Amino acid sequence: MRCAEMGGSSGVGAVVTTGAAIALIRAASAPADLFGTGTGRDAARCYRRLARLTHPDACPGDPRAAAAFAKLTRLWQQHHGDLGGGAIVARGDLANLYQVRGGLLKVARDPADNDLMDRESWALTRLRRDAERRLAAYFPRLIEVRRIGDPHSGAERRGNVIGALDGFRSLADVSAAFPGGVDPRDAAWMWRRLLVGIGAAHRAGLVHGAILPEHVLIHPAQHGLVLVDWCYSGPVGDRLPAVVSRYRDWYPPEVLARQQAGPDTDIWLASWCMTELMGDQLPAPLAAFARGCRLASPSRRPQDAWLLLAELDDLLGRLYGPRTFRPFAIPA
After folding, report:
1. Which residues lie closer than 8 Å to 236 by C-beta, 6 or more apart?
2. C-alpha angle 235/236/241, rounded to 5°?
3. Beta bridge partners of 88
4. pLDDT, tens only, 102-130
5. Helices (H), strands (E): how many in the chain?
6. In DSSP terms, which residues pair with 142 in a beta bridge?
């Protein structure tokens, strides 16, 4: 339970004893566990209340209170510096990720991006409702939506808590570990699963809008795949709300022209991900297959990820024979 949830209109009034304050602080694993909801004023009030109850001057000679105060100070410094500045586990395009109990808290760095965070929570909710249940593992699990006050300005920032994805690594990580390119026989299962995830989203009426190396996570040992960062998503046929600037050259021209996005948009970006992943090891037939996913006219591109998967399977069968499981590991 967070300080701001412990009763009273201000939230902190119920924490009236040193023992209660110590217990609350000891149970916190990250700044957001104490200060992650409410306005900046509420977070500061919570900190001051807990500090008064555990400060060494108020509890001389009490080692439990001293340890709690030290931890409270550390968590507050992290929270106050960047809403968790010392507890960041990853930095995304527009948000920071923090480890919290039960998952990861993703918080917009700039309140101006709150609409994109709302878009992600909307998309994950819709996927949970409308996507085929057997394919749910291809998408993050939305646990909670939070509204978080900036301790400096009091401006509200939106945050989404998503389920932990232990053991997963991004395609960007994979590329970095294999500078000479990934063996196409290993990249094959990643491409196949990527098309399954895209196809499941399209059947649910959504375009991901940012199929990029940092947003495609794989589990090397289990050959799993998850599509993350749904901040750029939208209904099929809508315009994308934004593009990731450092990948601007990857997007199809009609997206940059602020025209509608469709299934072919995700397929176009996915083909870039996979060809870049294989690098110099990319065989000519797969290169030609990828070029077919990026034809100049949107109407001539593949529009159905499931049909494209069948074509890919046929091509892979001709290149490498029947599918067999190939253990895959990312070098340290």
Report:
1. 202, 205, 206, 207, 261, 262, 263
2. 55
3. 98
4. 789 999 888 899 999 999 999 999 999 99
5. 11, 10
6. 162
The residue with tokens 């400096």 is 152
Task: For residue 170, give both structure tokens.
Answer: 């991004």
In angstroms, the CA 266 to CA 198 distance is 7
pLDDT digits (tens, 9 = 90+) for 177-228: 999 999 999 999 999 999 999 999 999 999 999 999 999 999 999 999 999 9
Q: pLDDT class for 15, splitting at 50, 70, 90?
A: low
Helix (H) or strand (E) holding 154: none
Six-digit token string for 330: 């990312």
SS3 153: coil
Q: In angstroms, rounded to a whole number, what is the distance separating the alpha carbons of residues 106 and 230?
A: 12
CB within 8 Å of 266: residues ≥ 6 apart = 198, 201, 202, 207, 208, 209, 211, 305
The two three-digit tokens of residue 5, written as one number: 């949830």
Question: How far is the C-alpha of 151 from the C-alpha of 47, rounded, in Å?
Answer: 11
Give just the sign of the alpha carbon dihedral 57, 59, 63, 69: negative
Average pLDDT, integer, range 3-21: 57
Nearest in space to 213 (alpha carbons), one of 231, 225, 223, 224: 225
Taking residue 219's Cβ as centre, other Cβ atoms within 10 Å add up to 17
Q: What single-letter amino acid sits at 235?
A: P
SS3 assignment, position 297: coil
Residue type (1 letter), 230? W
Tokens for 186? Answer: 């290993």
Amino acid 11: pLDDT: 41
Q: Give the lowest-confidence range in 3-17, 93-107, 124-138, 247-261.
A: 3-17
Q: Is the overall model pTM greater than 0.70, yes or no?
A: yes
How far is residue 27's CA from residue 274's CA, in Å, rounded to a whole number? 43
